[in-house]
Amino acid sequence: xxxxxxxxxxxxxxxxxxxxxxxxxxxxxxxxxxxxxxxxxxxxxxxxxxxxxxxxxxxxxxxxxxxxxxxxxxxxxxxxxxxxxxxxxxxxxxxxxxxxxxxxxxxxxxxxxxxxxxxxxxxxxxxxxxxxxxxx
Length: 136
Ligand code: TYD
Known about the structure:
Blueprint: E1 8-11, E2 14-17, E3 20-23, E4 37-42, E5 50-55, E6 60-66, E7 69-74, E8 79-84, E9 89-93, E10 98-102, E11 109-114, E12 123-124, H1 127-135
Antiparallel strand pairs: 1-9, 2-3, 4-11, 5-10, 5-12, 6-9, 6-11, 7-8, 7-10
Bound molecules: thymidine-5'-diphosphate.
């Protein structure tokens, strides 16, 4: 395993007025990669756990435009835990982290911007396989 990049928090500028809030994700200071794909997850039943996989190369930006959830990142040794509950705070997730998403509020939306198109071969869905891959 070569150099490991750490997860980081970025601030998303939000413009609020009586007509609501407009959040902006723009530029290399917020996103250290070019976006090739965006997707969202919503309507998550209470108590659900999502994620439970790692990506070999994919970089992502994850945040909660509505509601809240926990994002737990595991590098095989250390855990990095985030409570996403503000539309103006996002986590940059580098490659090589096992991620678990849980404790979703009923109104939670998980918004993800990603550096590549969907590719199942970039996933590691078995935790032991992830640990083995990390020490390769
Ligand atoms: P998955 O990434 O496993 O969801 P989560 O980690 O949030 O629980 O994806 C769930 C399903 O959706 C899986 O069958 C793959 C499919 N999928 C796509 O087809 N395109 C995509 O961009 C994503 C993220 C998932």
